[in-house]
Design a protein that fits this description.
The complex is a heterotrimer of chains A (543), B (623) and C (100). By secondary structure, chain A is α+β, with helices and mostly antiparallel strands. Chain A contains 22 helices and four strands. In chain A, a hairpin with a 2-residue loop joins strand 3 and strand 4. Chain A starts with a helix and ends with a helix. Chain C is an all-alpha fold and 100 residues long. Classes of the chains: A alpha+beta (543), B mainly alpha (623), C mainly alpha (100). Chains in contact: A-B, B-C.
Amino acid sequence: MSVLNEIPVLSLILWSPLVGLLVILLMPKQRSGWMKTAAIVTTLVPLAFSLWLYAGYDKQQGGDAFEERLSWVQVPLSKEFQSGVTEFVFRLDYTLGVDGISLPLVLLTALVTAMAALAAYHVKKRWKSFFAWFLLLEAGMLGVFLARDIFLFFVFFEVTLVAMYFLIGIWGYYNRERAANQFLLYNGLGSAIMLLAFVLLVNTAGFRVEQAGEQISYIYSGSYGDILRNMTDPAAWVNAVPDQLRPANPFYMSDTMRWTLFIMLLAAFGIKLPVFPFHTWMLKVHTEAPPAVVMIHSGVLLKMGAYGLIRFGFGLFPEQAKAWAAVLAALGVINLLYGALLAFRQQEFKLVLAYSSISHMGIVLLGLAAFNELGLQGALFQLVSHGLISALLFLIVGSLYERTGTTELPLLGGLARSMPFMGGVLLAAGLASLGLPGLSGFVGEFLSLLGLFESMRWLTALAVLGIILTAVYVLRAVLKITFGRQQEKHTALKDARLIEAVPMIVLLAFIVLLGCYPSLLTDTVQLGAEGLFEQLLATRAGG
Amino acid sequence: MDMYTKAAWIVPLLPLAAFLVLTALGRGSRRAGAVFGSLFSLAALVLSLLIVAERLEPDAVDYSYAFDWIRAGDFTLRIGFEVTNLTAMMLAVVTLVSFLVNVYSAGYMKNDERITVYYGYVSLFTFSMLGLVLSDNLLSLYIFWELVGVCSFLLVGFWYAKPKAKAAAKKAFIVTRIGDAGLLIGIMLLFWYMPDHALDFTTIQSVFDGQSGAITTGITTLIALCIFLGAVGKSGQFPLHVWLPDAMEGPTPISALIHAATMVAAGVFLIARTYDIFQDSAAAMETVAYVGGFTALFAATIALVQQDIKRILAYSTVSQLGYMIMALGLGSLTGGIFHLFTHAFFKALLFLGAGSIIHAVHTQNIKEMGGLGTRMKLTAWTFAIGALALSGIPPFSGFWSKDLILTAAYESNPLLFFVGLAAAFCTALYMTRLFILVFMGKPGAASAAAHEAPRSMTVPLVALAVPAAIAGFVETPWNGWFGSWLSGHQEPAHGSAAAIIASIAVSVLGLYVGWLVYGRRSIGRITLAERSPWLYKLLERGYFVDELYAAAVVKPIKLAGQLLILFDEFIVGGLVRAAGAATSSAGRLAARLQNGQTQTYGLAAVIGLVILVAALVGRRFLP
Amino acid sequence: MLPSYLTLAAILFCIGLYGALVKRNAVIVLLSLELMLNAVNLNLVAFSKYGVVPSLTGQIFSLFTITVAAAEAAIGVAILIALFRLRGTVKIDEFDEMRR
C-alpha cells in the first residue's frame, strides 16, 4: 500500500497503453501475430495496475487518493485586475486522482479493454493502425476517468472520439463510414456543448488565490477540486450574492447561470449516455463497428456519459439536479420502456443489444434520480455491471458472426447443439442482462429501483414493468439463437476456441462475483464517494 | 442440542457443490451426474432429517443467522438463514423429493446425451429451493425465488430443440416474472415502510402483530396483495396459471420435483412466511381465499377433459395449489401447509408414476393407453395410492389435509365450502377417469410393448407411496399435533362431523360417477362432448385463457413495439436526418461562392475591406 | 508635399487594383500587381522623406519591395508560360481549377 503511494501509479496506468502503442508502431507491418500479442500484453499492464490500485485503495480514508499534479500550460494574464497581485495566470494542470466513483470505472475500462484485445483477433486488415487506435482509445478512456482537471478531462474525452471514429470507419461492417460520421457528428455536438459549459465554469468557478508571504497569486484553472470547492463553499465568490459591499462580483453564479450550465452538461453527457431521443447514433455504432470495438463502446464509452453526469452535472449542481429529479426519472423510464419495446421487435441481434443498452442506461438515470445512497449505489453498480454484461454479449456476437456470417435472428437457431459452451455463456449473459439474482445485473437494477421507490412510487412501478419486458426481449433473442431447430448449414460449426473462451469466462466470472458478493463494489463506492453522497444528500435535506 | 440446526446452511451448499462439480466435468462423464447428484442430495436429506429430529424437541427455539450483503449509507441489505419448524419441514420435503427424483432420473434420463447437464440443473434447482426455504428475509427469499424460476426455465426447456419446449420455457419464465414483479414491488413497499428498513421475517412478525399499527391498513393490504401476486405467479393461480400446464414439456421427473412438489408450492410457502401481513388485512385475506377457491374449481374442471396425462396432473396441481391458497386465505395456516406437505408426496408420486408410464408407452395421450395395470403392477399400485390420496379418500394422506381445509371453509365461508366440495368432486372424477383409462380396460394402441420400469424408477415410487398413504396422520380431526408444532403453541384439533361427512361423500361420489362413466360405462363417455360441444371445447382449451392473453396482452405489446419502430425510424430518425440535411444544404449554398475565379475572391476581399474601413471610420461620426 | 505623393500613390494603387480585379488577361493582371506594389513603394519613399520621423528605413524597405516584386514577377510569368503551354490561353477566368 505504501508502495502505491510512492510511485505515480495513475500515470503508469494512463501512459502504459501509449508505450505499447510505440512498440507496435515499430513492428514490421506484416507481423500481425506480434502486434496482437503486444496489444494483449499491453492491455494487461493497466489491468494489473488497476487491480492493485483497487485492492490498495484505502476505503476507510475514502475520498480522492493517489493524486498527481504537474503544471502543464501556464498563460500570464493582465495584472490590472487588482492591485497588489504578483501573479495572475491561467493554468492548465495535469492532475490525476481517483475516488470511489472513478476507481471501479478505471478497473472496468482496463478489464473490458483487455478482453476486447483478446477478441480483436477477428481483425483482418491493417493491424498496425488498428492496434494503434485501439491503445490510444484505451489511454483516452483511462484519462477520462482519471483526470481531475476539466480541460484534461475534455482532451481525453476528445481523444476517445477520434480513436473511435477511425476504429468504426475503417474496420467496421458495410455501412461503417456512415456510422462513423454520425458518431462523430453527434458526439462532436455533445463535446462542443461540454466545452462551452467548461469554459463558462472555469471563468466563474475555476478561480483560486494563493498567498505565500508577499506573493499573491490569482490562478484560473480547470482544476476540478478548485471548482468543486468554490461551488460548494457558501463563502466563495461564486456563491456571494452581489450586494452593497461588493457591487460587482464577476464570479457570482446566478441561478440562471447554474441552470444553463446544468442543462448544457445534461445535454452533453445525455448524448453520450444516450438519453432518448439522442440515441440513434449509437444504434449505428452497435451494428456497424467491429465487435472488439463495440465491446469497448458499449462497455465503457457509454459509461463516460453517466460518469460525466455524476461528476459534473450532479457533483457541481446538486440543487438543479435535485429539482429535476422527476425529469431525470421520467427520462429514465422512457429510456427503459422505449428501449425494451423496440428491442422486442428487432430482427437483428446487434440491434436488440443496442436497444437493450438504451434500456439499461435508463436504469442508471432512475438510480441517479433517486437521490439517496441506494439509488446512487445502484446507478454506479449498474454502470459496472452493464459494462461487463454488454462486453460479454458483444464478445459472443463477434464469435457468432465469424462463424455464421450473420446475426439476423430469423437466420439463426439451435446453436446450443453445435456450440454448447457458447450457447451456455450466451444464455448466462442474457440472464444477467435481464437481472437474474446471483448475477450482477440484478444488484444494480434492484438498488436503483429500491432507491427510486422512496420518492417516486408510480414511476418505479412503471419501471418494474420494464423489467418484465426485459425478460421478454432477452429471452426471445437468446432462445431464438440457441434453442429451437438448427439450420442445416450450421451443424458443423465449432465451439469457442481457447482465445475466445478465456475472455468469456473472465467476464462471466466477474459478473457472478459481483452478483454474489456486491459489497466488493458497493463498499468502495460507498466509502470512496462519501463526500459526493453527503453533499447530494445534504441538498436533499435542505431543499 | 441445536448442532444440526446451526449447520443448516450446509444443506443448500451440498447440491450447489454437486452443481459445480458437474459443471466442471462438462458432458464428459455420463455416470457422474447420477452419482454426484444422488449422493449430494442424499447427504442433504440426511442432514435435513437430523434437523427435523432436533426440531421435534419441545423446547427447540428458532435459529437465525444473517450477514450484511450490501451496505449503502444508512441502509443495509442482509442475507441469512433461519430455521423454524416450518422451514425444517420444507427442508425435509424438498430434500426427500429431490433425492428420490435424482435416483429416479438415473433410469428415466439414461439415454439422454446431456444427462450430466440435466443433473447439474437439478442440483442447482435443489440448491435454490433449499436457499428459498431457509431464507431469513424477503430479499434473500426473492433472490432464490428468481433462481428457482430460472432453473425451472432451464429444465422445462431442457429439450431445447423442440419448439414447444422452447415456447413453454419462455412462457414459464415470463409469466412467473409478472408475479415476481409484484413481489418486488411488495418488497420495496415493505422496505420503505418497515421500521429500520428491516425485511427479515422475525421483524415482520413483530411489526404486523395486528395491534402496533405502525403501518396503516391500506398499505398493509397493498403489500399483502403485491406479495400475493408473486405467489399467484409461482403457484400457478388464476390468472397466471397458464404457464404450468405448458411446463409439462420438460422431463417428467422435473414435473414431479419442480412443478408438483416444491417450486410451485413456494407461493404457498411465501404466504405462510409472511402470514402476519396477510392476517393484518381482511381484504387481502379475502382476495387470497377467493382466488384460491376459484382456481381450485376452475382448474379441476379443465382437468376433466384433458387427454394428456401430464396436463391432467398439471391442472390437478393448479387446483390443489388453489386449495392451499384458499386455506391460507380462510385463516387456516395449518390447513394450507398440511396440504402442501401431503400434496408434495402424492403429487410427486403421481408424476413419477406418469413418468414410468410414459417411459413404457412413449406417449402421453391417455386415449392410446389402457390395460397397463397388468403389465406394470408396481406402477399401477403406487399410482392408485397417489390417486386415492389426491381424491381425498380416507385414510390416505390427502383426505386429512383436504378435510382440514374444508372444515376451515365450513366454519367461516359457506360459499367457499361448496366451491371446495365441487372441486373435490371433480378431483375424484378426473382421477378415476385417468386411472381407469390408463390402467384398466383393453390395451390401447401404445400399451402393447409396455413393461415395468427399471429398479431405479420403481424404488422411488414405493418410497413415495409410503408417506402418500400415511403422512396424513400427523394431523387429524382429533389430533392437532402438526398445527401445534408448526405454530409453536398448542392448537386445538379441528373437527366438524358435517364437513368430514360431506368431504367423504363428494369424493366417493366422484369416484362412483367416474366408475359409472369410464368403468361400467353405464353413462356414455362421449355424452358431454356430443351434447354440448362448446362446453367441451371450452374446458379442453382451458377456458381460452391463453388465447385471451394472446389477444389482449401479447398482440398489443407487439403492435406497440412495431409502432415504436416506425416512430424511431421516421420521427426520431427523421428529425436527425432533417437536421443533417439542413446542415449539408447550408454547406452546399456556401460552396457556391467557391467558383475558382481568383478575381471574384479578390473583389470580395476588397469589398470586405471597404466595409471594415467604413465601419471603423464611420464610428467616429456617430454620436 | 506629402499629400500629393500620397494622392498619386492612391491613384496608382486604385488603377492597379482595378486592373487586377477586372482584366481577363493574366499578363495585364500581373502588370497591375506591379502597379500596386509600386504605389506602395512610392508611399514608403514619401514617408521616409516627408514623414513625421524621417528616416532611411523607408527607402531601404522599398528596395526590398522591388526585389520581392521582381521575384514575384519572375515566378508569375513562369507560371503563366507554363499555363499557356498547357492550356493555350492566358485568360484568367478559364483558370478555375480550384472551383469547389
